[in-house]
Amino acid sequence: MKLYDSLMYAARAHAQWEIETSFNIIKNRKKLLILFVMALPLLIPAMAHAAATLPAFIGGKAAFGPSFFSAQTFYGSIAVGVIAGLITGAIGAGGGFVITPALMSLGVKGILAVGTDMFHIFAKAIMGTTLHKKMGNVHAGLAIAFLVGSGLGVTGGGKINRALYNFNPIMSDFVISAIYVLLLGYLGVFAMGKYFENRKKAAKDGGDVHGGPEKITVIGAKLQSIQLAPMIKFDENIVPGGRKISGVFVALCGAVTGFLASILGVGGGFVTFPMFVYGLGISTATTVGTDIFQIIFTAGYGSITQYAIYGYVFYTLAMGMLLGSLFGIQIGAITTKVVPATQIQAFYALAIIAGFVNRLFALPEKLTQMGYISLSATAGAIITKIGVWLFFGLISFFAIWIIGTFIVNIPKLRAESAADNDVKVTKGGVTQ
Predict the structure, then answer these.
(1) 135 DSSP assignment
(2) Which terminal CB of the chain, N or C, has fewer other CB atoms within 10 Å?
(3) Distance in angstroms (rounded) separating the CA atoms of residues 95 and 76
(4) Judging by beta carbons within 10 Å of its beta carbon (0-12, 13-18, 19+), is residue 37 exposed, middle or buried?
């Protein structure tokens, strides 16, 4: 399970950044005011016209990538943000994997869901970035080489997504769904396996991965031995004399990350970590810092240059998700104090599997519409509906459980908070 552990470590690093970013926005009145000012021109017309056609100047049916817009879609985006935030805050692993499948289930075209998800990540990053806390671990040379490759990958992924959509919108949805089926299927199987494994090892704090391999891998040593200019020196503070790797290999990793991020509408960190640590032999600390750095630029460049300017970003939904996720992350992060880690792991595995089932059940209808299989329109629609209800049923149950647990334990959480404050005051020498 080394690859799975690596993916999970990357997910936890990204989740920690999201949690810090969200708390940074919530605690800063100036940033909250800016968010409020940004949101009003989008959200007020959205709520006013939620049951009708949205004005063309802020998206809707007049956009280049049309998406059916209704009250269900708009308010659903807020709910999606809350659920993704709860997963991120409670589980400590990125909840972004549910966003694109969830938006597609609400009737949003795949390419619009991808563009909107990327824009939501970028908006959150520029609103509450805590990048300065990570800067000590960001290696300038690695970051520059990575971003060169990432820019090329994002551009290529965006072009392919747009070309597929222009050729056949149904095929575009099918390709995005199929990639999510493969990714979430893999993660779901191993997440559930990890859950059962950790139930047998309850003494090991829920089976968390506390770090990656600092010992260089065989492939990492091989690639570092290849002298291909430009050579980048790194990890001087970890290994005497540091290590060196060709910037070409780093750029190639960036291209793969950018391509997948642009196709799926995610940050891309889930592939950066295994490629850097296992493939290039870069330390976990340097990888995490550089990965957080690249997510901001990858999401920004991709969402604006590959989707927004072509009309493939649904701004109202992005703002709805942003506001919802800020709420969800706060509740999820606080609830971890009173919820057993093994229970949270079980829900995480179920959430991943729910996303897998949702996209899997959408494929027969798409294949039928493209003429590859023979299935009645009614049967295809029913299979898709079953996938949608299973998906929203499972993640809604998770959300209700987390929020309910939080409400029930408010007195306990307040008592713990008061006790922590007393300890801080005592340590500060204020009490007599």
Answers:
(1) G
(2) C
(3) 16
(4) exposed
- CA 281 to chain CA centroid, nearest Å: 25
CB 265 within 8 A of CB 246: no
Largest CA distance in the chain: 80
Among 77, 68, 67, 70, which residue's Cα sits nearest to residue 51? 70
Structure tokens belonging to residue 341: 């880690």
How many angstroms separate the CA atoms of 284 and 155, rounded? 28
> Which tens digits make up the pLDDT trace of 99-141?
888 888 888 888 988 988 888 888 776 665 554 445 456 678 8
User: Which strand (E) or helix (H) includes residue 55?
Assistant: none
Position 421 scores a pLDDT of 60
Place of tokens 């729910």: 354
What is the C-alpha separation between 351 and 386, in angstroms, rounded? 16
- Residue 190 and residue 268: Cα distance in Å, rounded? 19
Provide the pLDDT confidence category of residue 55 given band limits of 50, 70 and 90.
very low
Written as six digits, the tokens of 209 are 């991965």
For residue 225, the surrounding DSSP H or E stretch is none
Sequence letter at residue 178:
A
Amino acid identity, position 430: V
pLDDT in tens, 135-171: 456 678 888 899 999 999 999 999 999 999 989 989 9
Q: How far apart are CA 241 and CA 148, in angstroms?
A: 26
Confidence of residue 409 (pLDDT cuts 50, 70, 90): confident
How far CA 357 is from CA of 260, 352, 383, 400, in Å, comes to 21, 9, 11, 21
Report the distance separating Cα 261 and Cα 267, nearest Å: 6
Q: How many residues appear in the chain?
A: 432
